[in-house]
Structure formats: C-alpha cells, structure tokens
Amino acid sequence: MMQNTALAFTFLLGEFRAHGKRAAIGVIAIAVGVAMGYAVHLINYAASNEFSQAVRSLMGNADLTVRGTRMGFSEQTYPLLATLPEVAVASPVVEIDAHIPQENEALKIIGIDYFRALTVQPNMLGRLAEENTDPSLGAFHADALFLSPAALTWLQLKTGDKLSVRVGMEIRQLHIAGTVPAAGAGQRIGVMDIAAAQWRFDRLGLIQRIDLKLRPGVNLAAFKNKLATLLPAGVAAITPVDSEKRAANLSRAYRVNLNVLALVALFTGGFLVFSTQVLSVVQRRSQLALLRVLGLTRASLVRWILAEGAVIGALGAAIGLLLGYTIAAAVLDYSGADLGGGYFAGVRPTVHFDAWAALIFFALGLGAALLGSLIPALETARTQPSRALKAGDEEIALQRLRSPLPALTLIFIGGALCFAGPVNELPIPGYIAIALLLIGSIALMPRLAHTVFSRLPTPWQSAPYLAITQLQGASGKASIGLSGILASFSLMAAMAIMVTSFRVSVDEWLGNMLPAQLYMRAAASGDTAYFSANDQLAILNTAGIARAEFLRTLHITLDPLRPAVSLIARPIDVANPAARLPFIGAVLPSAAENLTQPITVWASEAAADLHGLTVGKQFILPIGTQLQPVIVGGIWRDYARQHGAIVINLADYRRLTGDERVTEVGMWLNAGETATQAINNLRAVLHNNTSLDIAEPGEVRSASLKIFDRSFTVTYLLEAVAIIVGLFGIAASFGGQALARAREFGMLRHIGVTRRQIGMMLALEGALLTTLGVVAGLLLGWVIALILVRVVNPQSFHWSMNMHMPWGLLSAVALTLILTAAMTAVLSGRSAMSAQAVRAVRDDW
Amino acid sequence: MLTLAHLCKSYNSTRHILSDINFHLDAGEYVAIMGESGMGKSTLLNLMAGLETPDSGSIVIDGHNLAEMNDDQATQLRREKMGFVFQAFHVLPHLSVAQNVSLPLLLNGVSKQQARAETASILAAVGLADRAQSRPRELSGGETQRVAIARALVHRPRLLLADEPTGNLDPESADNVMRLLHGQIKQSGTTCVLVTHSTRAAATADRVLLLTTQGLIPRTLRA
Question: Considering the entire predicted model, what is its pTM?
C-alpha cells in the first residue's frame, strides 16, 4: 500500500514536472473561477448583511411592526393599538426619504417618540452634542435632527451645522443637534421627534409604522390574526423575520443571477481541466498501459488520474479563495457593495471571511477539477492495456466519445426543464437546463466534428490536404479543442444576445414611455419633493408650455411579505390606454366608470407575476385610507420597477385620495418654443429652483441607457473572465495537441514539408475547427439566450423582452476568435517545428 | 551523388559528435553505416538530410551544396530528391495506407490521378495492394515498415536515408523488409544510406562503413 502511494506520488510529481505549464493553466483556471464566485458571494453577502442589520436596527426590539404604504396611514391607529391588552409598548414611527439638494441619494429620516423609543428602538435615540448650548436645539425642537456618523461623513457636516431638505418645492433647514451613536456602521440615517418630522415634512396626522413590544406570554400568531381585523386598509402587521425577508427579497434574484454568472467562469475552468486532462492521458496512453501491464489495478489508475485533478483543483481552489477575498475586500473598499444593480448603492460594508461559503467554493473548485478528470480516468482504466500500447490507438480511445446518446439525453432533459416553473421564485430549472444543454452540446461535439469533417472535400494541395485529413482522421482529438470554443463562444453569444435584446427592448420601451417633449421631476431622489396644486397650475400657465401631463408615484403594499409596489397615477385615456402604456397581450375594452363598479387599473408584468394579477381579475387596492376594488385592464411592460407597478388614472387617484400632489410632469411645447427657453421659464415660475430635474426625452433615454450599461458592467466583466478562461482552454488544447504531434511534424519536415506549410496546415486546422465551434456556439448561444430571455429573466425579474441579434458584435467576436485560434494553433506548433522536433522522429510514438 | 567533406558537428561546443568526416557515395550505391550508440550515426543522417547544419565542412548532394541552402531550399531538395525510412515507421495514424504513401507525390505537385496510379503501383510492389485503405493500426510492424518504404520510394528519390529500419521488427520481418528495400533501390537505381546496428541488415549493402571517433572507416562483415 505504502509502495503504491509512493509510486503514485512519483507518478504525479513526474507528470507535473514534465507538463508544469499545463498543470499551471488548470490551477489558474480553477483559481479564477473560484475567485470570481467567492468574491461576488462575499460582496453580495456583506451588502445584504448590512441591509439586514439596518432593517434590524430600524425595528429595534419590536416583536411586531404594523406597516402601511409609504404615504402613511392615520395616526389614529396608534391609540387603538397602544391600548390593546396584549401590547406592552407601541412606538409610532414616521419614515421619510428626504431629498437633499445636490445629492443623488435621499437621506432616510426617522421620526420617533423618544419616550416610546427608549424601550422599542433604543438604537435610534439621538445624543445631543456636548458643545450644544443653544436651548432651542433640544431634542424636541421642531428643527432638531440627529445624524448617524455615516450620514455626517456622507454629507460632510458636523453637529451644529444646518442641513437643507426639499419639501414640496421649498427648501427647509434642519439643525443638526447631535448624533445617533448606536446606528449601524455605514448606516446613513437621521432621527427627529415624530411630531417635528410630521410638521416639517407636511405629513401631519400620518405615520408609516407602529412598532409593537408585546407583553410576555402573548401568542404572536394569534395576536397577528387579531390585528388583521383591526387595522385600516393597506396596513398589515409583520414580524422582524418577515421584515428581513422582505428586505432580502429586494435583491435576491439579482444576487442569485450574479452568483450563477460568476460560477460560469468555474464551469469553463472545470472544462479546461477536462480538456487538458483528456489530452494528457491520451498522450500518456502507452505509459499508463505499461503500468497496467506491470500490475497496477484499474481502480488505482483511476485514483492516480483523479489525484492529478484533485491536486490541480485543491491548489486552484485555495488560491481562488485567497484571490476572491482580496478582490472582495478591494471592491468593497474602493467602490462599495453595489455591483451595478443599484440595490446596494451607498452601502459600504467591510468584508468578512465566510468559512462556510469558503468551504463550499473550495468544494466546487475541487469538484470541477475532479469532474474534469473523471471521464479521462474512467476511459483510460477501461481500455485494454495491449491495445493502448499500440501506436495510433489514441483516436480509438476518443472514438467512444462519439456516441450521441448521452449527449442527446442531456439536451432532451435540459429542453424539458425549460418548461418547468421557478423553484422558490428562482429560475433554478432554467439554470439547470442551460447547464445540461451546454454539457450535452459539448458531449455532442465529437459526433458533430466527425460528421462535418468527414464530409469536407480534400483538396489536392499540401497544407489544406494535410489539415483536412488530420481533422477527418483525428476528429476525436479535434473535438476537444472544438468543445472549448463551443463553451466560450456559446456563453459569450448567449450573454450578448440577451443583453442586446434587453437593451433594444428597453430603448423601444423608453420611446413608448416618453411621448412628451420635456420631462420634469420634483427631485431626483426621496419622497419629500412634489409639485403642489398651485405649482401644477403655474406649470400649465408657463410661457411656451402647450400641454402638461402630471404623474404621481408612490408605494403601496399589496403583500406585507413582498417589497412595495409602485402606484403610478397618471392621465390615461380609458378608450385608448395603449397610447401611454406598452401593453403585452389583451387589453380590456373600456367601460363606463362609475363609483359602484371597480375602477380599471393596469398592472406591470412584475406586479402581475408577483401578485397573481391577470387581465380582467378584480382585486382590492389599498389606496389612500381605503380599500378600493379594482379590475386589471391590461398587463404592460415595465423595465423600471422590478417589484411591480400599477397604473391608475390620475383622476381616479385624486377622487379616491384627495391627494393633489404630483411628482413628475410631461410637457408638450408650443410651436417654435425651444426646450432651453421652456426650461428657463419653468425654473423662473417654480421659485427659481435650480435643483429641479428637467430633461428632454433624449436625455432621459440616454441617462437610462447609461444606467442600463452600468448595471451590466459586472456581467460583462464576469463574462469576459469566463471567455478568457475558455480561450486559455483553447490555447491549452491546441498546445497539448501540437506537443502530441511533434513527431508527426518531424516526419513531415523530413519528407519535405516546409515550416510555412506546417504553419498553414495548423492555421487552417485551427480556423476550420473554430469556424465549426463558432457556428455550433452561435446556435447553442441563441438557444441559451432564448432560455435567458424567455425563462430566466421573466422568472427572476418578471419582465419579458423581444429577441434581438447583435450581428455586428457576434461577427466581430467570431472573426477574432477564428483568427486568434488560427494564430494560437500556429504558435503552439512553432515549438514543435523546432530542430528538436525533427529529432523527435527517433522517439517511439 | 553524395559527398561529405571535412564535416564537423558538436552540441553546446563541448560535446563533439562528428569531426572531420569525409565520405563519397556514387549514384545507385547502397552503403550501410554502423557504429556504437552515441557515435553520431543519426546526426550524420540528419546532416545529410539538411535537417541540421554542420559546424564546418560541406555536404554536396547531386551537385547541390547543402551548406549554401536556406531552410526552404533544403526542404525542397529533401522533398524532390530524398526518401526516408525510420526505425519507428512514422506513418500518420489518421491517414490510410494509400494516403500515407501518396504524401510525397502530393508535396511534389503530382496530379491526383497520377499519384493514385503511382501509389497503387508501389503498394503492389511492396505487397500491400490489398491494404491500401487500411489504417496503420490495422497493420503488423513489418507491414507498417513496408508502407514507410513505399512512401520513401514512391516519388523516385535520388537518395534514400534509412535509420534503423529493422530496429522495431522481429528477425523474419526484418529480413523481409531488408529484402524488399534492397530490391526496390536496386530496381530504381536509388542511392541509399542505411544506418543500422544490425549486421544482418548491413550485410545487404554494397559496402559497410563504421563510424568511429576517427571518422568513417570501411568494415568487412563476416559471412
């Protein structure tokens, strides 16, 4: 046993010494794959952890939170709950996302009752500045605001300074009376007295939350049920666990998609190990057969080859974990936790070593390398040593891979999984379908290579003849390189098709959603800025403005366990709602509206998917302070609000709520009026407000597409890494094959083939192989893109899109890949064409 | 036909392989070169083939001085005027027997039809007419070497260089191969240099030379 182990060790060491570069490429590929996966996980984990902590910190010690819409609900609910026998303490809360002029992000301001908060939200209590001697700046003063250390740093303010906030079209000043020392690290938050917050932000009589501390022994579930009957429309009680789940749900699909994408690099890494290991064992076929003849058992041989893979995998995974941790730390340090999706903008947590995840990613790296070694190991062990000892048997070994049955089975299962629904609201079957289609297609390559190349004509010219006969006679070896090209190009093509489809669809959608000539928002962030009825009148009367459409956006809760849904109130022509909304599918014919009938609303795809809304379905919409029966008039495409949006006619909204405020305006100009003139007129009319967000549709479109491109930056980066790893695989495959063919080149040089002719032969082989790989990759990429567009995206983000092919990009990449492969093949062959290779004819095959 | 004058070759300036080798071979002559392992027999063959360059001295083949040729010219010369037989056969496993044999014709620009005819003719001559479409792995060692001989002679080279052609064969197959080789070169008038350890193989040559540190010296084989 000991001798066997020692022999195995010598065998392993010998192989790594002889082909150190090949092993190193395998190690690097696994390391890169593990690093990408682990880094993305650590960044997302740190971000969502920070998010959860912030949610926990805001909820404090509450056993239950009663929450309404962002607009709030009547504070009359508070005494009702506070006096319930089950409730020990009830703490009312006002939540405001205050717009700070010149800042792109809003400041969250919490209005609390300090006395109640002592018990329920102790972390939210402010501490007055020690140097504060102004009695008017006490905690209860209407302008007194306490800022968390992170908020002070972000706003570059200190205690005693003033902070400007926009309310409506007005700028109001708040005094920074002290800090919130117990706020979470990195948590940007402000705390005020609840009454002051209501007054200063024009929210008198409204609250957003009541946090409840229950008496000992109260049955939480039973009490929750009891509350449901007492609470007003659109207000629900949720537990802290549900709150955290709700917060995590905000970014869950995005995080999972990014993690899966990061694992693509690991897949191509594992595949690279597979291709190098196959070539390695094919090259050593006679050596391995000799060991079998000398008495090594099949099982030992399998273990030895697997041990090679395990060493590559373990080394790669260990390096990958270190690299991943370093990348995550650097990204969090330099740019924060947001990877482009916008879910964690401004969140700057620090990286923490996650041992369990490290173990999982180590196992994934090791597993990828072991899987990559398993097929060649099993095949080698199965071969009769007597046959393997004979020269020219290599292709026979690879001929077994030609059987199409396993490949077709995988493709069939993958195809069937495309029709399965999401699991736990994630497109798990879709991901598995993509993986199976990819593996199945790769497994089909030997058969495809044989079928295609055997039909190629063999021109009677040296280089083409040699190249094509090589591809025809050794299609098994060729298909290993081909598989690498297929894997890389199909994934690249799939992502390119998906992103282009998405981008073009977004562009078309923006065109549909932006019919006006000028757009204006009360503020770029927060929910405190708005246009009052007077402002709206002023806008309508502004010189140069022919017509204006006003729009009010707010958030409502349809399901307490899900993120809030946007409620968009805008003028809709009920006779022709498609004039303003890009519908998919049927639209209900308009009906005469009256108060006894449910009013018509139009749901976005996400709202429909997440809340089970279909055209013609009636449901209860919590709006204002009442529950309004509504009917879904149509489903429209919306790329802006992933958690769903419901459009209601502005007139209906005003009639139901009495709320005259709006947040956005679309304007049509008088003939001859320029946008610049109109903008100047608007600013003058609206109190010379320079921080108004006014833009032409082209600017909105271009800004939106810029955000779109930024959100895909990490996607592009991860995809590029996967492609680079794939290209390494192709290079390693060509390199390995060139090395294995050194004697062939030597013989050809002897019989009068010039170096140039061998170069041309290799270039042609590389180009033909890559062309086939690219064509197959394009087809597979299109199928994968179809799954991404039709299955993964709708199940993850609840939006559909039309397929668009980026022919220019695909052609450019295909051409680059073909030329690169041809050059790589030539370079790989160059060393094999040296004088040493000529002497190689003296060696045994 | 072949003249080697004052030929020297060393590796890394410390390992002198060949020094002051002088040798002349007439057209149609068949010579065997013997010598201990490491004496430089194969290096000598590579130098004659223009695959390696000598440190000094000259190699003239059919009036062409290899020392004055660049790589492409030497390759062209090899392609047109030389044939090679190796110890390890070196036939391409992915090509059929006929495809392997026709390679030199392809390289010399012979038309496909003519190549087909000449390949069939030489395969018949080496007794492999019925194996034309077989793959090398389906042949015995002796048969594979016959394919290599057919390939070496199919384009009627002026010079055949054979490096241990019987080294991988059993005695009976070795005898058959040498008989075939001898018959073919004598029939075609090809000049041949055979490098071998085997006295049985060397015995088929017109004359035998022994490569020593003093150079090539004639050797007589005992019957």
Answer: 0.81
End-to-end CA distance of chain B: 29
Chain B residues whose CB is inside 8 A of the A839 CB are: 42, 46
**What token pair was written down for A444?**
């089909």
In which residue are the tokens 């003939």 written? A671
Q: Is pLDDT larger for residue B8 or for residue A689?
A: B8
The span from the CA of A805 to the CA of B144, in Å, is 53
User: Which of B52, B86, B106 lies at the smallest CB-CB distance from A841?
Assistant: B86
**B72, B90, B94 ranked by CB distance to A754: nearest:** B72
Q: Parallel, antiparallel, or unpaired: how do β-strands A162-167 and A170-179 relate? A: antiparallel
> For B42, which of A465, A749, A842 is closest by C-beta distance?
A842
Q: Which pairs count as long-range contacts for B178-182, CB under 8 Å and 24+ apart, including other chains?
A: B178/B204, B179/B204, B180/B126, B180/B127, B180/B146, B180/B149, B181/B85, B181/B149, B182/B30
Are the beta carbons of A460 and B137 separated by less than 8 Å? no
Residues of B in contact with A842 (CB under 8 A): 42, 86-88, 163
The single residue listed with the structure tokens 């009036």 is B63
φ and ψ of A647, to 5 deg: -100, 135
CA atoms within 13 Å, Cβ hemisphere of A699: 11
Tell me the average pLDDT across A457-486.
86
pLDDT tens by residue, A282-336? 777 777 777 777 777 888 888 888 888 899 899 999 999 999 999 888 888 776 6
Tell me the backbone φ, ψ of residue B31, rounded to 5 degrees: -120, 140
Query: pLDDT tens across A688-702, in order?
Result: 666 678 888 888 888
Q: Which residue of B has its CA nearest to A837?
A: B51
- Given a contact cutoff of 8 angstroms between Cβ atoms, the answer to whether A123 and A543 are in contact is no
Q: How many Å apart are CA A588 and CA B22, to the nearest integer?
A: 103
Provide, as residue numbers in chain A, all residues whose Cβ is less than 8 Å from the Cβ of B84.
747, 750-751
Give the helix ranges, DSSP H, for A167-239: 194-200, 220-230
- Give yes or no for a contact between A685 and A487, defined as CB atoms under 8 angstroms apart: no
Contact A280, A312 (CB under 8 A): no
pLDDT value for A437: 94
Token representation of residue A568: 């968009």
Give the C-alpha separation, A833 to A739, whole Å.
Answer: 10
Picking from A433, A452, A456, the residue whose alpha carbon sits closest to that of residue A444 is A452
β-pairing verdict for A518-521 and A693-695? antiparallel
- E strands within A336-394? none
Q: What is this model's ipTM? A: 0.90
Query: Is-contact A667 A519, C-beta < 8 A?
Result: yes
The answer to whether A524 touches A693, Cβ cutoff 8 Å, is yes
Name the packing angle between helices A697-711 and A713-740 (round to 10°).
40
Residue A244 structure tokens: 């955290």
* Residue % of chain B over a pLDDT of 70: 99
Query: Average pLDDT of A454-470?
Result: 91
For tokens 């009454």, what's the residue? Answer: A195
Strand ranges in A133-180 using DSSP code E only, listed in sequence order: 144-147, 162-167, 170-179
Considering only residues B103 and A233, tell me which one the structure prediction assigns the higher pLDDT.
B103
- State pLDDT tens for residues A69-85: 777 888 889 999 999 99
| Contacting residues of B for A463, CB less than 8 Å apart | none
